[in-house]
Write a structure and sequence with these properties.
Elements lengths: L1 E5 L6 E6 L4 E5 L3 E4 L4 E5 L7 H10 L6 E5 L5 E5 L7 E7 L3 E3 L4 E5 L2 E7 L2 H4 L6 E14 L4 E13 L3 E5 L3 E5 L5 H6 L5 E13 L3 H9 L6
Length: 225
């Protein structure tokens, strides 16, 4: 399989070239174009995080109930995939580790990758973000999308990220939701809100724009229906 990212970082699209009889799983509705002989089907995905329960759990996590599966009968079949938001795409390689992904940031993956729902507890509830995040495991490439550009932050010890700018983080990291400074009042009056304090060793992937803040800003400018 060959994955090429085009038009980064603001309007990224992924070109995926499959080997013979190779499958690629994607979020429903993200296919832009593909070779005419590729077989496309819809599934709830079997195995870990699969079936009816897995589909419902993904739905609660902000993802689609169904997944699209693309299979090429011959080598060289290509698919173009793009996220719903204007932004970037990251290719992350799974080698048996676990990755926690913010809701709506999963785009596609190889068939050897498992998608499950991870409950992050009340600390995620108080962050104002999704209570449920996806837990990605298994083996193969995963495509993640962001709102705006996406960048990697290697954490060695402790690091703080605004909750609305988190795309994903490696599960080797511990985290807690807290205020950015010493004062709760100062945090909210300063417009910073809450942050995620990561501890340990691993990587955090961040997006340059906050979709929640963008939606609130744009929403105030829209005319009433």
């Amino acid at each position: 399989m060959d994955i090429e990212l085009l038009h980064q970082p603001d309007s990224a699209i992924a070109r995926v070239v499959l080997d013979e009889n190779q499958e690629f799983v994607a979020e429903a509705g993200c296919m832009v174009a593909m070779s005419g002989y590729i077989n496309a089907s819809t599934t709830l995905r079997q195995g870990k995080g699969g079936g009816i329960l897995g589909g419902l759990k993904r739905l609660v996590g902000g993802e689609s109930l169904f997944l699209s599966v693309f299979r090429s009968p011959v080598a060289g079949g290509e698919i173009f995939l793009a996220p719903k938001f204007i932004g970037d795409i990251l290719v992350y390689q799974m080698n048996g580790q676990e990755l926690v992904v913010q809701a709506t940031s999963y785009l596609a993956s190889e068939s050897g990758v498992d998608i499950d729902l991870g409950f992050q507890g009340f600390k995620s509830l108080f962050s104002g973000e999704s209570i449920f995040w996806l837990t990605i495991s298994g083996y193969g490439s995963v495509l993640l999308n962001s709102f705006g550009g996406i960048y990697e932050v290697p954490v060695e010890g402790e690091y703080i990220v605004d909750t609305g700018h988190i795309v994903a983080f490696e599960k080797s990291l511990n985290f807690e939701i807290t205020k950015p400074g010493s004062s709760w009042i100062g945090a909210f009056l300063g417009g910073e809100g809450l942050v995620c304090r990561f501890k340990g060793q691993g990587k955090v992937y961040c997006q340059t724009h906050n979709p929640g803040a963008f939606g609130r800003q744009v929403g105030t400018q829209l005319p009433p229906i």
